[in-house]
Write a structure and sequence with these properties.
Layout (H helix, E strand, L loop, with lengths): L10 H13 L5 E7 L7 H19 L4 E7 L15 H5 L19 H12 L8 E4 H6 L4 H9 L1 H9 L14 E2 L10 E5 L4 E5 L6 E5 L6 E2 L2 H12 L6 E2 H4 L4 H8 L12 E2 L2 E4 L15 H7 L2 H9 L7 E4 L3 H16 L7 H14 L14 H10 L4 H6 L9 H17 L21 H16 L6 H14 L4 H13 L7 H8 L1 H7 L6
Parallel strand pairs: 1-2, 2-3, 9-10, 11-12
Antiparallel strand pairs: 4-8, 5-6, 6-7
Helix pairs in contact: 1-2, 8-10, 12-14, 13-14, 15-17, 18-19, 19-21
Bound molecules: zinc ion.
Amino acid sequence: MLMETLNTGHWADVNAEKILREKGDKPLYTCASGITPSGTVHIGNFREIISTELVVRALRDRGKKVRFIYSWDDYDVFRKVPKNMPNPELLTQYLRQPITLVPDTLGRAENYARGNEKDLEALLPLVGVEPEFLYQAERYSQGYYAEGIRHALVHKEEIRKTLDAYRTEPLEADWWPVSVFCEKCHRDNTAIEGWDGDWGLSYSCPDCGNRETLDLRKASGAKLPWRIDWPMRWVKEGVDFEPAGKDHHSEGGSFDTARLTVEVFGGQAPVTFQYDFISIKGRGGKISSSSGEVIGLDDVLEVYTPELTRFLFAGTRPNAEFAISFDLDVLKLYEDYDKCERIYYGVQDANEKEKAKQSRIYELSQRSRPEAEMPYQVTIRHLSTLLQTYDGDIDRTLAALEGVKPAQLKRLRERAECAWRWVTQFAPEDFKFQLKAEGSPANALSVSESAAVRGLLKVIETELEHIDEKALNDRVYAVAAEAGLDTKEFFKVMYQALVGKDQGPRLASFLKIIGKPKLLAVLKNYQG
Ligand SMILES: [Zn+2]
């Protein structure tokens, strides 16, 4: 299957081909992604990671060796106290220091950056994403980039010219292509005083009065600003591919300047594409790290299984904006995924082009390889009805599904857990119900209503377990007609009796799910 589907025109394959074309035949390809862990890593940031991972996958499917690196830009400065963090007064004292020196007031890790890093590092393997993490604070402070910093100082004027070409105001005359965290107070408000043309860089700190000359090769607080740091690292790591968001890809943005500055370091820009924003639908709030309400990968995994989560991204072109829904669209997205799955396994027909396309999306949606046998399919709608009928009991729900094979249980359980969280936390009100307790008091009914309910009780007692859903549905209509009751009215009466609402799941199917013993117990007081 795999080899046949490599020229499907899927965007991950198109980019893999582009990398091979532009970078030539190499023993190893490096694909990069990264972020500053200055806040919770939200689902919009995840788009970059998964976009990279899908291209990594496409390269590996072509038999290529790939290094997938994820840079934690944790030597960045702590600019602003995030709104969702406890003890903001304490955090304020750490402004202008590297984020790795800021305490984690959420108590997750030894420092704030590490806390944000750990959160994401724990989640990524759940969706089959396993990059090699690089920690920039560690690398910078160990002198790993000393050569790169020195190189930037040597080529200061060329870099200035490149940056100025995109600026409305030219850089100041005393501008330096490097910044320094003070060795004493750790803040970056320092001023560079001079450079000895080799490894010695002098600076002064207005905050604590510290003045010194540091050796770039040793532990030091020197760091390149983002627009120079990025291309320096492309060359240092040999990056062949790195996507970036709209902000970096805007006209004169950091990708434009890095593409030119990288030549100073003797390299070339990686193959790239711009990925678009993600919005959130059906749960309110926006995804921005600066607001308290941040939707992370963990929130998405509450409602979408790992495969569904990957499907959302694999099935959408990266440059298209889309919304991750928590409302009724969830039902449709699961149905789309199931259709894609049926096409992959040849259970549903599709023309050749569509089959190739859907099959590739399906492969890329899997954490590793597709299962040998097609997973068990059941809609979220049906699962929600079962789960609500059984008070969220997942074991009972799975036991009620016919023909499930042991190998299919794990995925099915994940889907049921998502369905239960969705229906209890996000489903519209008219979707939710709770079956009444056994022996609940009967509602006051008219003579014809009462006759219809008794008629249906008789059907439940004698026939329910022997007839199918369609036949049962016919009986519902028949008892209503016999009692001289409008069918619509009868449905209302039954839903009121069962769940205390005017509507509920499709009645015949619902009666079958509840089953004879439970129905007779709940409706006991309508007898006689
Ligand atoms: Zn200082």
